[in-house]
Structures are given as structure tokens and as C-alpha cells.
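Dear colleague,

Following up on Tuesday's group meeting, I ran the structure prediction for the two-component complex that the binding team flagged. I've pasted the input sequences exactly as they went in, so you can double-check that nothing got truncated or mislabelled along the way. The C-alpha cells for the whole assembly follow below. Feel free to forward this to whoever is handling the docking comparison.

Inputs:
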Amino acid sequence: MALTSSTTDATQIIKVHSDRIDAAMAIQFKEDMRNQAEGGATRVVLDLTSVEFIDSSGLGAIVAAMKQLGNDRRLDLAGLHPFVEKVFRLTRMDTVFKLYPTLDDALSATAD
Amino acid sequence: MHNGKCLDLSFAATESEASAGIAQLSQRLSAQGLPTHKAGDVKIALAEAINNVIEHAYADITPAKVKVRCRLHQNWLEILISDTGNPLPGFRVPDGIPASLGSTIDELPEGGFGWFLIHELTSDIRYERSNGCNRLSLRFDFPKPS
């Protein structure tokens, strides 16, 4: 799975270049997230704009990625397709993560 | 009256074959007229059910095939998923109680949502075990607004 990373101010942006995060790629995603996020900014925004489909394994992998960041860093999610957002809502994971409709929304919310 | 449009697909029970198979079925169902607002629900329920087959039914045994048969009617879709793996525990459909979110980040569940999502997104679930074969049938209703 391809991830790319960039940093603006105090935020690291990790973009997912895949149309899905599912059981077939969950383990690789976790591993790639660990490598990309290593030593990065305190706040990480995961840009999911390209992701049109996620299943519970993919959801679990995002949860695992957040845990890997430890207590001093946080993971916010941006660019959720309506369907991806629905999976977060149904599982109540929308109460755990901050979800932003677009990457710009996530970046302009850095001040809170 | 017609009997619905039929779509069949069968693939090896591996995660990568399943990933491609689910994408293909979902695309073909949309092309056959599955309403857009239902397409996402169908895709995830299908994915969760097939992932369960791969992760549980074929756990510890040589994985064989997963067969999927879809019948798309005007107001409902029925999907039959069959495999020759181990039966569901207790020969019944699991309840699908969602995993608890816990109270700290470390306690957050990384799984345990599959059956919950299937229950949430389907109108009916049936399971039958016969002749060493699991047959799980998922039904999705989409009544036309009158």
C-alpha cells in the first residue's frame, strides 16, 4: 500500500494512495503507517480522500495505527467518503477520532 | 414476473482474491441496477461475510473456494455465500453485539465488528449447514418510495 507523507507547521499529513483499506491490506497498512509516522509531528492527519471503501479489518488497522503513535501524539482523519464515514459512525469510532470532510478542514482546525 | 438477475462469482479463499472478487461483484451489481444508496451497504456486508469465511471457516484447514450467488430483484437483493469450511459456532448466525470501545485508547478494539455490521446493514440473515457446506444468505430490501 502506498502512503506519502508531508509536514506543515506542527502537523504531519499522511496520504493513502489506495481506493480501499480492507482485510487484504490491513497488516501492510499498519506496518507502513508505523514507518511513515516514525519521528513525525505530534499531530498526524490521515488523508483518506482516495479511499472509497473500508471494512472492519481496515478500521481495525486505523485504530492500531493510532495506538502505535502513543499517548503524546494524535491521529485525525480527513477526506472521508460518505460510505467510509458511515462505517466509523456505525461502529461509534466517530466518537474516538476527529473526522474532517476535507484535508483543508483538518488543516484549518489546527488551532484547537 | 421475472426471477431476478443472477450474478455468480467464485474465487479462492484468500484475502487478495476476495478483495478483487468483492470489488468486481459490487461493480457488476451496480451495473445491473442496484440502487446507489444501497451499494455501499451491500459491499461492506459482503466483505465482512467473505472475510469471516476466510479468517474463520477456513482457519486451520486448507482453504478451498468461496462461491457467491447474487439475485437482484426490483426491490430486493439476495446474496448466497457458500463455502466448505468449518461451520459457524453452534451452527447459528452470531448475534453481532458490537465490540465495546473501552475507556482508554489502549482498550480500543481492533476487530469484532464484522457480524455487527452485517446485522446492521442487512434486512435478513439465514444460515444453513448441510453436506459439509456452509450457506449464508443475506437479504437487502430497498422498497421504492411510493
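The beta strands of chain A are 2-8, 11-17, 20-21, 43-47, 53-54, 74-78, 99-100.

Cheers,
M.
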